Amino acid sequence: MPVSEVKNEIVKSCLTSNYLPAMLREYKGGWIIEYYAENPLSKNLERKRIKLTRLVSRYKSIKDARLHANKMVMALNIKLFTGWNPFFTSEDARLYTSVNIVCEKFLKEKEKELRSDSMRVYESFIS
Description:
The chain is an alpha+beta fold and 127 residues long. The protein is built from 5 helices and 3 strands, in the order αβββαααα. A 3-stranded antiparallel beta sheet has the order 1-2-3.
């Protein structure tokens, strides 16, 4: 898939999703990659920044540094497009599952091993 098609897909998904794509910003004080993602606790878009001052100093030419930074931006945008959220740590994603969904999964698991009377009690307690 060409890069232009990937960019178009990312922009389309951003219009209906919970993030704004990453962009490279070049300031006098240094370069940053800036993007917005939804914080699951506050349900608001919050800005995230990645400072690239040390990265730029590693390269001999600004062209090479800009190329590397743009690759980082594309990688971040693809991760955001596929559902990655920078506010989640490895196991935190499970904490934001609603109680109703957890109860349904629990009942499906218990249905295999319990009698029908026991299932009826569980279902009435959950409701």
